[in-house]
Amino acid sequence: MDDTLLDVRNLTIGATVYPPDAAPKDISIVHGVSFTLAKGRVLGLIGESGAGKSTIGLSAMAYGRGGVRITGGQVFLNGRDILQERAAGLRNLRGQEVTYVAQSAAAAFNPAMRLMDQVVEATVRHGLATRAEAEARAVQLFGQLGLPDPDSIGRRYPHQVSGGQLQRVMTAMALCPRPSLVIFDEPTTALDVTTQIDVLSAIKKAIQDTGVAALYITHDLAVVAQVSDEIMVLKSGKTIEHAQVRQIIEAPQQDYTRALVSVRSIDHTEKEPAAPLLRVDNMTARYPGVKLDVLKDVSVQIAPGQTLAVVGESGSGKSTLARVVTGLLPPSDGQITFDGRTLPAALDGRARDDLRELQMIYQMADTAMNPRHTVGTIIGRPLEFYFGLKGAAKRARVQELLDQIEMGKGFIDRYPAELSGGQKQRVCIARALAAKPRLIICDEVTSALDPLVADGILKLLLDLQAQEGVAYMFITHDLATVKAIADQIAVMHRGKVVRYGPKSQVLAPPFDDYTDLLLASVPEMKVGWLENVVASRKIESAGR
Amino acid sequence: MTRNPIVFLLAQRLSLGLLLLLAASALIFMGTEILPGDVAQSILGQSATPQALANLRNELGLNEPALARYFDWLGGILRGDLGTALTNGQDIWTAMSGRLANTLFLASCAAIIAVPLAIILGVIAVRYRGQWPDKLISGITLTSVSIPEFMLGYIAMFVLTVQFRIFPSVSTIYDSMSLGEKLHAVAIPVLVLVLVVLGHMMRMTRAAILNVMQSAYIETAELKGLRPITVIARHAFPNAIAPVVNVVMLNMAYLIVGVVVVEVVFVFPGMGQYLVDHVTKRDVPVVQACGLVFAAVYIGLNMVADIVSILSNPRLRHPK
């Protein structure tokens, strides 16, 4: 008996791009990818951004996002080539045979409709069940996925439930019409690690219970190793390697796969504690018009030339701490001491030299640069502002900085749009460096980057620290990054510092409850890790 | 307020509206103060003696200080008294209410047709964006917006009255007419008004929906295999209501406040004609009263737009 569900043969996908000052041109995104997926199996598609993994996933629904077109090949679903289907046939396929779980459930749910209306919509519209039957199935799925109040959660609007819950509702929405294939497109990427683990195990259980086949798309190899049976590694629209999970993780055949598996290999020895450059004492802060304190009695220190990593989940107050230190948000209580002198709380009270010595790098390099300025102008601006450099002297210094960030000649006259994500972040680093600061606040600077690129940025930051003796306040939610670069760590939870000290102490037992949960939630590149963690949690909660 | 932010927001909008109306009344009063011309002169004619003019001005209270007259006027309005016309001594509200009712009748007839039509055409334009139905709809509505309204009026009159003799060219209506007769009488001005306001509302509906169509949840809806028209009407339009309502209300206000030209072309006894008549006669109280009513309509409709926008936001309707 043939149990092949999806058979993709020599798929090519292209798109039309519209460069600002050139004629539109067709580019190829996916160049001849083939794979098969058996019924009830889970295939993980992994690769960096631009590898074409989402595009390939959506081709199983014969769907092209924006200007993306499937230009060749065949996609057989249950034996028929869906690329030959007309509009009506495709509508029957989508939402019925194949369903989709999007990356950001918060954006993928219609804000103006109740959850239940959206969850049962496809099932009812395709005539697969009556409204009442579909709702009963949805409630059952809500329960299976571990959502609170399965009977009533459907009456809420998307903004009334949390991100992790929304992602599970989205999974229920995909499973409701009893499809034969579900495409999960980075379903846990936007979630905090402690939430990710719940959603991940809920998704895995739901896949097992319903026997549905799935394409699981992610850039995180450790995550995909937990839910997939096999993994296909993609790079620039080509298949690099396709094998069983265990083989990819334990015995990768290709160099690129090996790089992915061994990523985050930075070795950083912790520096000795020293007299602080920056002291934050008993800081309490809230946003105007909000009654809640976002920071509660926070005290941390950073020594010259060292790195303090501030770790926490979204809403823990870590970015607010950065805003307070830079003076963007004057605190309601507490004091900032920099190099022995008290810094004025508000930005406009600070001297130009205070501003110069404290620079910032942001998560989205894209939005942190003026798209109409060249790299030279962007990096030259602080040189002119703080040091009065002009003309040839300025240009020479810009080139020097570009050399420091390992971007040689030829970049100085380019625009941000002509750079890759990693290069953009490097330019932002150079801009911060141009001011000759003594402290740089790095706010999630690697979160938007692919693992290998992020690795390069971290290495660069460490090199620059060694050369220039600059201190970093490194804000991140990613514990792997913390392990790679920190000297000191502050773990934040709900506005408080729950654990603080040198890296070797913070990351060593005995742990407080929250740090323990946080550390245990970071996916490890091991098959069966998820089951172990979930099992040990159950034992713990049963013992309590 | 802790329980529901909506009540607070609505109360805020309402008080803001009243404040704005007060400011408008002051502006109207100041505006009419600096208008050139003399009522007494226009009542008594060029041959009046200076003594007679002075007597009449005194009688009409025109010699009081401006501030006193403003508060006098404002007090009257608060009591529901818009004053009396200088030229014929009639109570302004009595004279105006019939005209206002006519204008509202004409405006509602036009709105009842134009608003749903504009939205439906906007939805169709989005459904077939870039294809011929979209281009046809945009072409026709843009053309009708670009032609001056009196021109549209005369073209419609020429075709429907002169050529085919379906509708009358004079749209005068009386209280004694039945609804059917009234509708027959105003058919051409309604048609013209619809053509005038349709384009703006249609373009805005189209633009607002297209903007929403970029959202991730539209892709979700498409990947559910829904029909394109279902995606637009069920998923996109409810999220585009706020900008659409604003433009709809702006056009409704235009239908009430700005139809002078159409009223003149079709000899329709509405507010516009009433205002124009009394401006030429320098009858300041009537002009002031008309200005205030127009301002109230404008502010009121914009307030309705704000309130609908607030209510269309599920985050405000259903707080966490």
UniProtKB/TrEMBL annotation, chain A:
Keyword vocabulary terms for this entry: ATP-binding, Nucleotide-binding, Transport
InterPro entries named among the record's database cross-references: AAA+_ATPase, ABC_transp_ATP-bind, ABC_transporter-like_ATP-bd, ABC_transporter-like_CS, Oligopep_ABC_C, P-loop_NTPase
Pfam families tied to this protein: ABC_tran, oligo_HPY
BP terms from Gene Ontology: peptide transport; transmembrane transport
MF terms (GO), sorted A to Z: ATP binding; ATP hydrolysis activity
Keyword Electron transport: no
Membrane topology: Peripheral membrane protein
Cellular component per GO, a single term: plasma membrane
Coarse class of the protein's main subcellular location: membrane
Record has NAD as a keyword: no
UniProt signal peptide: none
Domain of life, per lineage: Bacteria
Subcellular location: Cell inner membrane
Residue ranges of domain ABC transporter in the record: 8-261, 278-519
Entries under SUPFAM superfamilies matching the protein: P-loop containing nucleoside triphosphate hydrolases
Family, as annotated: Belongs to the ABC transporter superfamily.
Entry-linked PANTHER family: D,D-DIPEPTIDE TRANSPORT ATP-BINDING PROTEIN DDPF-RELATED, TRANSPORT ATP-BINDING PROTEIN
NCBIfam families: PRK10419.1
Name of the protein: Peptide/nickel transport system ATP-binding protein
Organism: Loktanella salsilacus
UniProtKB/TrEMBL annotation, chain B:
PANTHER family named among the record's database cross-references: DIPEPTIDE TRANSPORT SYSTEM PERMEASE PROTEIN DPPB-RELATED, PEPTIDE ABC TRANSPORTER PERMEASE PROTEIN
Coiled coil residues, start to end: none
Species of provenance: Loktanella salsilacus
Subcellular location(s) per record: Cell membrane
Family stated for the protein in its record: Belongs to the binding-protein-dependent transport system permease family.
Domain of life: Bacteria
PROSITE patterns: ABC_TM1
Stored CDD domains: TM_PBP2
UniProtKB keywords: Cell membrane, Membrane, Transmembrane, Transmembrane helix, Transport
Membrane topology term: Multi-pass membrane protein
Listed Pfam families: BPD_transp_1 (PF00528), BPD_transp_1_N (PF19300)
Protein name: Peptide/nickel transport system permease protein
GO biological process: transmembrane transport
Main location per the UniProt record: membrane
SUPFAM superfamilies per the UniProt record, alphabetical: MetI-like (SSF161098)
Domain ABC transmembrane type-1, first and last residues per copy: 100-305
Transmembrane segments annotated in the record for this chain: 104-128, 140-163, 183-201, 244-266, 286-311
Gene Ontology cellular-component terms listed: plasma membrane
